[in-house]
Specification:
Number of helices: 10
Structural class: alpha/beta
Strand content: 5-15%
Order of helices and strands: HEHHHHHEHEEEHEHEHE
Low-confidence stretches: 1-12, 34-47, 279-311
Number of strands: 8
Radius of gyration: 18 Å
Distance between the termini: 10 Å
Largest sheet: 6 strands, parallel
Shape: globular
Strand order of the largest sheet: 3-2-1-6-7-8
């Protein structure tokens, strides 16, 4: 596959490709969303103003995926599943094992590592059918992702569902994988990176750019406009300073398992924080106390084997 130089991270402001990626992701999310059944969340014992507001159909919640809803990066877990299914060779496994281990320990995204993963993912899926990857995604969720869901963040999402609000994942992971995770968690749907396909076959190109940073904000903005939402009444949750554009869009931003830059920004902006990595609360949020369950224990450092970038 030719080098995808245009995928190199650029300035933080929204570009034409960010807008295109956001709009494409929003359209894909709306087409795939479906009603899901939720699980009950125990009643709150905290005396806080009611949030989320029950019956507010102009409000919704947007959740980042990696290290917010799930330990580690979905793209790496997906790659591990593809490696098991012999989509690529063993020789690259060791090279990228440390990347996922570092990501889980540091809790932050390395743009170069994520860029390598996205470039490789495109070359891996090129020529494969979309339906094939969706089917494999179901299996990979059960094998590598289900046990890595943060129960605290899951309870936060459930609180919004119980209030009658829609809940969307917003992630740089492929939209097909994001949709699998959203459906398994009983969420409304997912905004994710849209890979181009023709007649149901991946071309090895993206529509716009990865749904990352400003592109996430554009996707949320486009979806909110299409759904008739009032962003000032919506909530967004993320662990990464890269998602400050998305968090800044809504009236109720939350820093979940925040990296150092997001923690500083959240404190400066008086945003609410919650940290599930150690079981402590960085700050109270007006959500059921059951959401304060500690971090998921254990889990091994998942590794992904990726094709070497062609020069």
């Amino acid at each position: 596959m030719a080098a995808l130089g245009w995928l190199t991270p650029r300035r933080r402001s929204a570009t034409a490709r960010s807008v295109l990626a956001g709009e494409a992701s929003a359209e894909a999310a709306r087409k795939s969303s479906q009603e899901q059944q939720g699980q009950d969340v125990p009643a709150s014992s905290e005396e806080e103003p009611e949030f989320p507001v029950h019956g507010d159909d102009k409000a919704a919640a947007f959740f980042d995926l990696d290290n917010t809803v799930m330990q580690g990066a979905a793209l790496f877990h997906f790659g591990r599943g593809l490696y098991k299914r012999k989509f690529f060779e063993t020789r690259d496994l060791a090279k990228f094992a440390w990347q996922q281990a570092w990501f889980r320990l540091a809790g932050v995204e390395d743009p170069e590592h994520m860029q390598d993963a996205r470039d490789s993912a495109l070359s891996i899926v090129k020529g494969h059918r979309v339906s094939e990857l969706k089917s494999i995604g179901e299996e990979i969720y059960d094998e590598y992702m289900a046990e890595r869901i943060w129960p605290g963040t899951r309870a936060l999402a459930q609180a919004h569902l119980d209030a009658g609000q829609k809940v969307w994942l917003v992630t740089a992971a492929p939209v097909e994988i994001a949709q699998v995770i959203a459906r398994r968690l009983g969420l409304t749907g997912a905004l994710g990176t849209v890979a181009e396909s023709v007649d149901g076959v991946y071309t090895g190109r993206l529509v716009g750019e990865p749904l990352h940073g400003p592109a996430k904000a554009e996707a949320v903005r486009a979806l909110a406009a299409a759904e008739g939402l009032d962003l000032s009444r919506c909530a967004a949750y993320s662990d990464s300073h890269n998602d400050i554009p998305m968090l800044s869009l809504v009236g109720h931003p939350y820093a979940i398992n925040p990296d150092a830059k997001l923690r500083r920004h959240a404190r400066a902006m008086d945003w609410r924080l919650r940290d599930y990595r150690t079981g402590r609360k960085a700050a109270k949020v007006g959500i059921p106390a059951a959401a304060g369950v500690g971090a998921v224990a254990g889990g091994t450092a998942a590794a992904i084997a990726l094709h070497r970038r062609r020069r």
